[in-house]
Design brief:
The structure holds 2 protein chains of 2 kinds.
Chain A: H1 3-11, H2 14-31, H3 39-58, E1 65-67, E2 72-74, H4 76-97, H5 108-126, H6 130-148, H7 155-186, H8 191-199, H9 205-223, H10 232-238, H11 241-266, E3 268-269, E4 279-280, H12 286-305, H13 311-332, H14 335-366, H15 377-380, H16 382-396, H17 402-417, H18 422-447, H19 462-477, H20 484-491
Antiparallel strand pairs in A: 1-2, 3-4
Chain B: H1 5-22, H2 28-52, E1 61-69, E2 74-80, H3 84-101, H4 109-128, H5 132-141, H6 143-153, H7 158-186, H8 194-199, H9 201-206, E3 208-209, E4 212-213, H10 214-229, H11 238-245, H12 248-273, H13 275-301, H14 306-327, H15 330-361, H16 377-390, H17 397-409, H18 414-439, H19 455-473, H20 476-500
Antiparallel strand pairs in B: 1-2, 3-4
The chains are: A mainly alpha, B mainly alpha.
Chain lengths: ~500, ~500
């Protein structure tokens, strides 16, 4: 690889380089801040991320390329997801400014770690080599461990971090083992070469299934799919609330990105780069395995969520169920299926961040995370109540919210595929009905029961209201007005193929 | 403007809800009168729609058509024919009158009326949309306000009733969604347009789904979705609870309009789109109708709670609709839709009357009254009329529609029809027995000072009474309105059956 090639590749790498620069700048800037003014580092980080996102939006990805000897791919797919996780991170930063948990402590590092995590996610969504996949995954994971233990004097937060580390180390070990087997059998760590070797049929199906499951352990842990979900509730409950919100959406979206890329590129055959549908390589029916994971995730997530009384734990289990719905789209593995997953990931980001942000604000104001204590919130804080109700309806998937449209696209993809997945659609839809019950418990607590009209009405601060509006209004209206997101998601289903 | 009349009628209440949400909650009178004005205007528009509607045509009229989400061929497609026109009138009428029944809502009136108007918009939308996707959106949107209206303003068990209603209907809705998507993908080119789906009806009978006849599988999926709404035995268990716990005006809407949506769905989608499967399922549908008639009446006979009795009477009356529909004869199907309209007006009256006495006595125990006709003669008189209408006495509209259902069903399902007539006797029994226990005999001394029905309550009841009486004597206008559409529907289903050799 000569210097010219590296320079060319770097020109595709500008957003990442800007991000790295900003990251270093924030670290330097933070050195000159006192504890009470360290929030300024946060503002700087947010401003920098806006810049990076603009660079990403401006980036020309009309021709997909692999850079750094096919370590990373720059294509519409990775670009869409990079923008998505950046927006998610910006929203989380915005909410972090309002979080009581983070008041009166140095927060410079907090924002630096978030930026590093964003960089890790950029790598993860574009990785096309076993090594880059693994490094990116670790980069995301280690930053997540640190951030979930950020409230270091709280036992809960420490517990969250330790649990996360133990589970994480274990599953990434298994992933690495799977990778090494794959490397040993195919003689390459480049996923395009792996695809070529596998389609030549040199690996025995039974062994391949073992490898497949090992890899799924590693990826499944990142998206919190059952049965790799055990860390989720404790980590979500113990971590600082904005981090919980963050973990439930951004790394999850990145995890889905790598699952989609890995399975569709390395383990499927496709005719041309802008393919309509992929077919799993013969003897490697990963779609069936993934279908089972999807059913388990939806059902287990929903059924356990029914019994939760803490809002963060409830949302944690519900996020497992949502991972299941998204996996349904991955199973379909064609243009519509993957576009549906991307669409779902974006909508889920809006509604889940929204629900968490309301929960954070309520924790700030009323110091509670119990659903029971949301009693009469709809009357005590009318604006907050209505917005929370919108998020709950959207999470359930009821029209006229974006959550419905996202589910609709997933089930549309399943049914379009034919009889084979009709049962998956039925199971998925019935799970939607189950989830109604626990989401409505929140609504019920807010509005039903004895109403004692409060003397004063609680008004959320303006910036929180604006933030929630930014999340809720697109959910209600964007899809009615031509649904631009759906077009974006469809255009994003283009991978770099060597 | 005529081109957008249906959209205006549908979205006017949404506009009204926004306005009401902006009025300060202390200005109670403005809120109430505002809601009355919006629904009143809607009623005037609905009457105007009927005025310009061409009765002789079976075509879809007042069409509004534009591509909404072109990627999936989803259209914003509104239009009415002889099937939806009576339902639109019914919805507008009952929404307007129910505002006056809601006058005494005690808490959070602003939220109540705003949600009530959203509910109104959802119902209107269901009856005027001709794109399945749009239909589904309205169908679902209705659930949210209903959930709140029962759960916040309902009776003692309101929370349980609300979530049970919601879970049941959502379960039905997801099956509807599955059926809808299956129809979409089997149709070629893919479409949600109900008229085009109906034209391509034969495609569904020939396709396979889950290894079975696609038409039949989809029919069953849609059937469960609609049956929960009707409700058809054994999917009815949400109904008595929701009716009893809901505030009076909402019971009126539930019984008057929401139940009709189930049978409307059959006639709008299942029958014309899945013609072969309809013929295949006609007999089971008639049997289910019979079960509804008898079971509903028997259950009503056993109730001590007046509102529960009326609720079960709805189950029984909707059975007539099913029986008439299943016969697939002009008389039967006209009777069925006419019965839908009549049950809307009659059950609305019945629930309003229950509300009147409950507001005063604070209970609804049939045994707990006695002889109150002496104290409240006007109330007793109006109730007598409503009960007679309910039991299908000649001279009231219910008699005509039930008779038509029987006339239509008799040649096709002779024995079922004969058994169904037992339902009429049972209907008479519980209405008369209840009347006797409440109004006749010794005056219960507790109610010596029972307050007479007031003018506002009478204002809500009298239009319904007039309509019931008028259509009982002279049903022709209503039958003219729907017959050309319905007769051509019967024709189409029969022809498809002959082609398929059924």
């Amino acid at each position: 690889m000569n210097l010219n090639q590296i320079m060319t590749d770097l020109s595709y790498f500008i957003p990442e380089m800007i991000l790295t620069g900003i990251l270093l700048l924030v670290i330097l800037f933070d050195l000159f801040q006192k504890t009470d003014s360290s929030i300024r580092s946060g503002y700087l980080a947010l401003g920098g991320l806006v810049l990076v996102t603009l660079a990403l939006i401006g980036q020309d990805v009309s021709t997909s390329v692999g850079i750094f000897s096919n370590m990373l791919a720059v294509d519409p797919f990775s670009n869409f997801l990079k923008i998505l996780v950046s927006i998610g991170t910006m929203l989380v930063m915005w909410m972090s400014f309002n979080s009581n948990e983070l008041k009166n402590r140095r927060v410079g590092e907090y924002y630096v770690l978030l930026l590093v995590l964003v960089l890790g996610m950029y790598f993860l969504v574009s990785a096309t080599h076993l090594l880059s996949i693994y490094i990116a995954l670790e980069m995301v994971s280690i930053m997540s461990y640190l951030l979930s233990g950020y409230l270091k004097e709280q036992v809960r937060s420490n517990e969250a971090s330790v649990k996360y580390v133990v589970f994480g180390a274990f599953s990434s070990g298994i992933l690495l083992y799977g990778f090494s087997l794959l490397y040993g059998l195919t003689g390459s760590a480049d996923i395009f070469e792996i695809q070529a070797a596998l389609s030549a049929g040199s690996v025995s199906p039974a062994l391949m299934m073992v490898i497949l499951i090992m890899i799924l352990v590693g990826f499944g842990y990142k998206i919190a799919a059952v049965p790799f979900h055990f860390w989720t509730p404790d980590v979500y409950e113990g971590a600082p609330a904005p981090i919980t919100a963050f973990l439930s959406v951004a790394p999850k979206a990145a995890g889905f990105a790598i699952i989609i890329r890995f399975f569709n590129v390395a383990l499927s055959s496709a005719g041309n780069p802008n393919m309509e549908a992929w077919t799993a390589l013969s003897n490697m029916n990963w779609q069936a395995v993934m279908g089972i994971l999807a059913i388990l995730s939806m059902t287990v997530g929903n059924v356990i969520a029914l019994q939760q009384s803490n809002i963060k734990r409830m949302l944690a289990y519900s996020s497992i169920a949502h991972a299941g719905y998204m996996l349904l789209g991955v199973v379909v593995a064609d243009q519509t299926g993957i576009a549906a997953v991307l669409y779902y990931a974006a909508v889920y980001m809006l509604m889940n961040l929204g629900a968490f942000f309301v929960a954070i604000h309520i924790k700030n104001e009323f110091d509670t995370e119990e659903i029971e204590d949301y009693k009469a919130l709809g009357y005590r804080a009318p604006v907050l109540g209505v917005i929370m109700a919108i998020f709950m309806f959207s999470l359930t998937g009821l029209p006229p919210t974006g959550g419905f449209v996202a589910k609709f696209y997933i089930f549309r993809a399943l049914i379009e595929y034919g009889d084979m997945y009709f049962w998956l659609a039925i199971i998925g839809l019935i799970n939607g009905v189950i989830s109604l019950y626990y989401y409505m418990r929140v609504v019920k607590a807010m509005y039903f029961g004895k109403i004692e009209l409060p003397d004063t009405v609680h008004q959320a601060p303006l910036n929180v209201t604006i933030l929630l509006g930014v999340l809720a209004l697109p959910l209600l209206f964007a899809w009615m007005l031509g649904d631009p997101l759906s077009t974006l998601a469809q255009n994003a289903v283009q991978f770099f193929i060597q | 403007m005529e081109n957008h009349l249906l959209s205006i009628v549908t979205f006017l209440p949404v506009f009204g809800a926004v306005i009401i949400a902006l009025i300060p909650k202390e200005k109670l009178d403005i809120i109430r009168w505002g809601a009355a004005a919006i629904t009143g205007l809607q009623l005037i528009l609905a009457i105007w729609i009927l005025y310009i509607f061409d009765f002789s045509s079976s075509e879809v009229q007042l069409q509004e058509h534009f591509a909404w989400i072109p990627a999936f061929n989803i259209e914003y497609f509104m239009g009415i024919d002889g099937l939806s026109a009576p339902m639109i009138l019914l919805t507008a009428l009952l929404s307007f009158l129910a505002v006056f029944t809601s006058w005494n809502i005690e808490k959070a009136q602003k939220g109540y009326f705003a949600l009530f108007l959203l509910l109104d918009a959802g119902m209107m939308g269901v009856f005027s949309s001709l794109d399945f996707f749009l239909f589904y959106i309205f169908w679902e949107v209705m659930l949210l306000p209903m959930y709140f209206l029962i759960g916040i303003w309902g009776g003692p068990q309101r929370e349980y009733a609300a979530i049970k209603f919601f879970l049941y209907t959502l379960f039905g809705s997801v099956l509807l969604l599955l059926g809808m998507l299956a129809l979409y993908f089997i149709s070629e080119p893919h479409t949600f347009n109900m008229l085009i789906l109906a034209e391509h009806s034969s495609q569904f009978g020939n396709a396979l789904l889950l290894g079975m006849n696609a038409g039949k599988v989809i029919f069953i999926l849609l059937f469960i979705g609609f049956a929960i709404k009707v409700p058809i035995f054994p999917f009815h268990t949400w109904l008595p609870l929701a009716h009893v716990e809901a505030p009076t005006a909402i019971s009126v809407i539930l019984a008057g309009v929401l139940l009709k949506m189930g049978t409307y769905g059959f006639l709008r989608i299942s029958f014309p789109v899945l013609k072969d499967a309809t013929l295949w399922f006609a007999l089971p549908l008639a049997i289910l109708g019979l079960i509804n008639i008898i079971y509903g009446a028997m259950a009503a006979l056993a109730q001590r709670d007046l509102k529960k009795m009326v609720a079960y009477s709805s189950v029984s009356h909707m059975g007539f609709v099913l029986l008439g529909m299943a016969a697939l004869t002009p008389a039967g199907i006209n009777g069925a839709v006419f019965q839908m309209f009549n049950h809307g007006t009659i059950s609305a009256m019945l629930f309003m009357l229950v509300g009147v006495v409950y507001d005063r006595a604070h209970h609804r125990d049939i045994e707990g009254f006695g002889g109150i006709a002496k104290v409240v003669p006007i109330y007793a008189g109006v109730t007598a009329m409503a009960f007679f209408a309910g039991l299908g006495l000649p001279g009231f509209s219910g008699f005509i529609s039930e008779a038509l259902c029987f006339i239509g069903a008799f040649p096709v399902f002779t024995w079922i029809t004969i058994f169904a007539t037992i339902g009429i006797v049972l209907n008479a029994a519980y209405f008369l027995w209840a009347y006797q226990r409440i109004f006749m005999g010794e005056l219960n001394s507790k109610y010596e000072n029972l307050e007479e029905i007031n003018n506002r309550e009478l204002f809500a009841l009298i239009p319904l009474a007039i309509i019931t009486f008028f259509l009982g004597v002279y049903p022709t206008p209503m039958l003219n309105l729907m017959s050309s559409t319905l007769n051509s529907l019967v024709e189409a289903v029969k022809t498809a059956g002959m082609v398929a050799g059924l």
